[in-house]
Write a structure and sequence with these properties.
Distance between the termini: 92 Å
Strand order of the largest sheet: 1-3-2-4-5-6-9
Number of strands: 9
Number of helices: 28
Structural class: alpha/beta
Shape: globular
Oligomer: single chain
Largest sheet: 7 strands, mixed
């Protein structure tokens, strides 16, 4: 008979054997992982410095030898991991310890292996392999938080930008912005107000040899700051100096208004490459981020800030600074905004950062409405939208506004209201198009002029030259092209095509033009100009309005020049004409562009029972205005689509 002592001795020996095996197995596992990961990850020597900045940790590019993820070595590694995992699970059960969920899949399951393989492939020298790896990373949604964190810490700058431009990407792929520098203090430990920091940044930028607009905005921002102090003491700050054009901002608190002045000045400075260097060197990226975080309730301030980042991103030398400052995660988040203006500004900034898939650059005022994300869909042609007087890149092309007094179901329709029909409807119907919208400043009166520069800079001729340079940078002319224009924008289209036809470097824009859509374009002048000139003591008509005078010699010359080569090029033309008057303010009612003025003389002319503002705003997707425009685009681009 076996004694109790012998039973205890036998059990202890068994436990010792199991424990010894577990210890040995664990030791083998740890040793193998150290050697394996050491080979897999070669961390840059600057990693420690980056970690101090709470920024990205970069991984060197490694070769992609098939033997590393296929064959006997790969299979043996998986089998070893499975065996070790079973040992660890058994140990946890015997000693009744909680089993770490991370170890249950660590480098053992297929998706875990895929994580590290995709990270390696995302840094391949082979562009096709690299892009596919980023796409595969972005499409995964079953990973754990720590795995997204692994990608955020180990992916390089190029991969982070690619992920940010991937549709429906998980924001856990991105590190949060690094801690911001400590705010400067004045006497008695008080912090500098944000507007003071902005003024200091503006003062540090070059002040001589400036573009008139840059000089105007800078002096305005610095001058209004002193008026803000007066406002804080109960004085009227708006009616002094050049504050009159900004009286409408009285509804905002003075400090926020001054921030807007300063940011508008920085927008102008950011259009100059040498000034972007200074903004970055003076800590401007961090200051802008602080303001962005503080002004989450101001879409206008945030929009101006992202506009500045988009301008700075035109300079590839600043890309690393922009990424290190944490702007990629912010832009990725804004890309998900339901507001088309916000998301389009972020899209432009990321497109300028993405040199892996975007060869074009998008200067200030040039926005891609589609595609805003990376896509495997090849681009066959370009559609270019040019707004008119008092228009904008987005609001001009919105769905027709709902009249709540006439429409009993207005509240239901508001839920389906489209902020920009080219981005929503046209992109859906023609996904292989690149859709671009351009923005430039126009005004009825010089009282409202944002930048009162010399008259020639507001002329159609100057704007044509300025926009052609921007469009060339954006790759306009490299593909078949259709222009869509409203009001004065149509005159600008004609002038750009005439100028491009005379410039050998721009002639491909003319040669690739397939068609033009004109929405109430005043080819022979506008009654708005006649009224404004007659009431000049009230309105002080701007250069843009004066150029629209009926039977203007300049308009006649432009029309003759355009028709002389448009007929030779056999451009397809579709013109829409308004038949209803438009309310200008509360007292003026005008038929802005009569049917006879909207008649170019070539192509189809279609009168529509709408006013001047709504001629380019379809009521719904199946409305005649949109469907006829869509058919025209599909017909002239039939070979490409």
């Amino acid at each position: 008979m076996i004694s109790s002592h012998e039973i205890i001795t036998f059990i202890n020996r068994k436990i010792a054997k199991v424990t010894g095996s577990l210890i040995l197995g664990g030791f083998v596992f740890i040793t193998y992982e150290v050697l394996s990961l050491n080979k897999l990850l070669q961390i840059d020597t600057q990693a420690l410095h980056q970690e101090k900045l709470k920024s990205y940790v970069y991984v060197r590019t490694a070769s992609l030898r098939p033997s590393e993820y296929q064959g006997i070595t790969y299979k043996a590694r998986k089998e070893i991991h499975k065996a070790v995992r079973k040992i660890l699970e058994t140990e946890a059960k015997i000693f009744r310890r909680p089993f770490n969920e991370q170890f249950s899949t660590f480098d053992g399951e297929d998706h875990e292996c895929a994580l590290w393989l995709l990270l390696k492939r995302s840094q391949s020298e082979d562009k096709a392999v690299r892009l596919q790896a980023v796409q595969d990373l972005a499409s995964n949604s079953h990973w754990h938080d720590y795995q997204y964190g692994t990608v955020a810490q180990t992916c390089d700058q190029r991969t982070a930008i690619g992920l940010a431009r991937s549709k429906d990407v998980d924001l856990r792929f991105f590190l949060p912005p690094p801690p911001l520098p400590k705010i400067k203090t004045v006497s008695k430990g008080k912090d500098y107000p944000i507007e003071d920091e902005l003024r200091l940044l503006l003062v540090s930028l070059p002040q001589t040899g400036l573009d008139p607009c840059v000089q105007y905005f800078t002096s305005l921002a610095l001058r209004e700051s002193s008026q803000t102090l007066a406002a804080q003491r109960g004085g009227l700050w708006c009616f002094g100096g050049n504050g009159l054009p900004y009286c409408e901002t009285l509804s905002k608190i003075p400090s926020e208004t001054v921030e807007l002045f300063c940011l508008q000045a920085l927008v102008q400075h950011s259009k100059m490459s040498s000034h972007c260097d200074k903004i970055e060197a003076k800590g401007g990226l961090q200051l802008l981020q602080r303001i962005y975080q503080l002004r989450k309730d101001s879409a206008k301030i945030q929009r101006n800030i992202i506009r500045i980042i988009g301008n700075m991103a035109l300079d590839e030398r600043l890309h690393s600074s922009i990424v290190r400052a944490g702007w990629v995660s912010i832009l990725a988040e804004v890309m998900k905004s339901p507001h088309v203006i916000q998301s389009s500004h972020a899209s432009r900034a990321l497109a300028n950062l993405d040199r892996d898939t975007v060869k074009e650059k998008y200067p200030d005022g040039v926005y891609v409405l589609h595609p805003q994300y990376r896509s495997s869909q090849p681009i066959r042609a370009d559609i270019l939208f040019i707004h008119g007087l008092l228009g904008a890149a987005f609001k001009t092309w919105r769905q027709q506004d709902i009249d709540r007094h006439l429409d009993k179901k207005a509240s239901e329709k508001e839920e389906d209201y489209i902020q920009c029909w080219p981005k929503t409807w046209l992109a859906s119907d023609c996904p292989s198009l690149r859709i671009i919208s351009v923005e430039y400043d126009t005004h009825l009166s010089d009282w409202k002029a944002k930048c009162p520069v010399e008259a020639h800079r507001k002329s159609i001729a100057f704007r044509s030259s300025e926009l052609l340079d921007k469009l060339k940078a954006a790759g306009i002319g490299d593909r078949p092209l259709v222009w869509v224009s409203h009001s004065m924008g149509g005159l600008l289209v004609k002038k750009m095509l005439v100028d491009a036809s005379k410039n050998p470097e721009m002639d491909k824009i003319v040669n690739n033009t397939r068609g033009i859509v004109f929405y109430s374009v005043p080819h022979h002048g506008s009654q708005l100009a006649e009224y404004s000139i007659n009431a000049r003591y009230l309105l002080f008509p701007s250069v843009e309005v004066k150029e629209l005078s009926k039977d203007s010699p300049a308009l006649k010359e432009l029309n003759d020049d355009f028709l002389s080569f448009a007929k030779d090029k056999k451009f397809s033309v579709l013109s829409f004409a308004e038949t209803l008057p438009t309310h200008i303010g509360s007292m003026i009612k005008l038929h802005v562009v009569p049917v006879e003025s909207a008649d170019l003389g070539i192509g189809d002319l279609i009168p529509v029972d709408v006013n001047h503002l709504n001629i380019c705003k379809p009521k719904k997707k199946d409305a005649f205005l949109y469907q006829r425009t869509l058919k025209f685009i599909q017909d002239v681009l039939a070979q490409e689509l």
